[in-house]
Amino acid sequence: MEQPLHRQCHRGHPAHRRRRHGARLDPGAPAAPRHLPGVSAVAESDPKFISIEGIARRYPAPGGGATTIFENLWLQVPRGAFVCIIGHSGCGKTSVLNILAGLEQPSDGVVVVDGQAISGPSLDRAVIFQGHALLPWRSVLGNVAYAVSSRWRKASRAEVEERAKRCIDLVGLRGSEHKKPAELSGGMRQRVGIARALSIEPKIMLMDEPFSALDALTRGTLQDEVRRICTSTGQTVVMITHDVDEAIYLADKIVLMTNGPEAMVAEVVENPLPAARARDTIHREPDYYTVRNHLVDFLVARSRTFRDEKPQDYDPRHPPQVRLGAAPEPPPANTIPFPALAKGRE
Ligand SMILES: Nc1ncnc2c1ncn2[C@@H]1O[C@H](COP(=O)(O)OP(=O)(O)OP(=O)(O)O)[C@@H](O)[C@H]1O
Ligand SMILES: [Mg+2]
Fold first, then answer.
1. Residue 32 above 80 pLDDT?
2. Cα separation of 226 and 48, whole Å?
3. In this protein, which residues make up the domain named ABC transporter (predicted)?
């Protein structure tokens, strides 16, 4: 479920809060690249934009004591990066995302975003969960406009609607502005959730398996849209997925988490595929199978064994950054690339 906006409150530094919320919308004025959906932007160089510093999550164990889901977890996400986290069920991915969102407190450690330790939910961090938390009595426009007016409380109704409509356009829902959520398909509802998240210009988009409940074709279309929007606006994204191909298509960096309990970040894989990759041809990229096989091998075997077999110089503060070589690797005989699978269903 997407975090309802009325539950998102700002608890950041007051000066920072004034800067973000005091701004009035000016639809006529030229916007900065990050602030105008669809306009190219160069990611600013800020390698520690999100800095996860030694966080832990522990729960009381049934027989007393505590179960450690993960501890001493460190990770940095540069500004403008699209990072996917993959790992087996139960390793703690959603817990990490909830801590990033400020919805859960870590048992230890801290998360610093843009130089500020986070202490609770904020409109700076939009969360899109698997489902959606649309207000059923409001139209598509009403849902998105509600988010915009929460962000810019002094904006006029016309300004709010103008921005809301631009975001609705961006996710391909022009013409459906006046429909209620009940009149929309699952994919359309998820688009409204994305439009709503984008409309508040969050510093970070946090997505927990946002496409997993959708059929393959809708999922592919929405992946394309999210990739187009995020690359063109320089949006910083942290997304959880179980889908290796989705991670390769969308992510700049792919974080591999070992199995829990006491899960670890085994490595951060730099995606070597060109930024201009396309869904239909991605499987022809020279490094595609190298990356795919590396990720699948991790999920099949190393996610289980990494703790015992990790390199001697493994340092949780600096998880290994893996850059896979350009050596072409032939696809395994039993692997059908996902675009081919998707085409077969058309
Ligand atoms: N409130 C809670 N009390 C006790 N244990 C919990 C609680 N919430 C989560 N856990 C445990 O923490 C672990 C990590 O949960 P989390 O939801 O973060 O995993 P995940 O990697 O997102 O899994 P999935 O891929 O299935 O969504 C799980 O073993 C889960 O049982
Ligand atoms: Mg989860």
1. no
2. 23
3. 50-284
d(CA 70, CA 94): 12
Count of other CB atoms within 10 angstroms of residue 221: 16
Q: Which of 26-30, 148-152, 215-219, 305-309 has the lowest mean pLDDT?
A: 26-30
3-state secondary structure of 320: coil
- Please report which ligand is nearest the Cα atom of 87: 1
* CB-defined site of ligand 1, < 6 Å: 59, 69, 87, 89-95, 260
Are the C-beta atoms of 241 and 86 separated by less than 8 Å? yes
Pick the closest to residue 121 from 2, 238, 24 (CA basis).
2
Domain 5-14+34-345 has CATH 3.90.420.10: no
Residues in the chain: 346
Q: Give 44 Cα–ligand 1 centroid separation in angstroms.
A: 34
- Please give the distance, rounded to the nearest whole angstrom, from the Cα atom of residue 104 to the centre of ligand 2: 14
Instruction: Please report, as a single letter, which amino acid is at residue 211.
Output: F
| Ligand index nearest the alpha carbon of residue 243 | 1
Q: How far is the CA of 212 from the centre of ligand 1 (A)?
A: 17
**The overall pTM is greater than 0.85:** no
Task: Choose from 131-140, 272-281, 291-300 the range with maximum mean pLDDT.
Answer: 291-300
Give bridge partners of residue 128 from the DSSP assignment: 207
281-290 pLDDT, tens digit per residue, is: 999 999 999 9
Mean pLDDT, the chain, whole residue set? 84
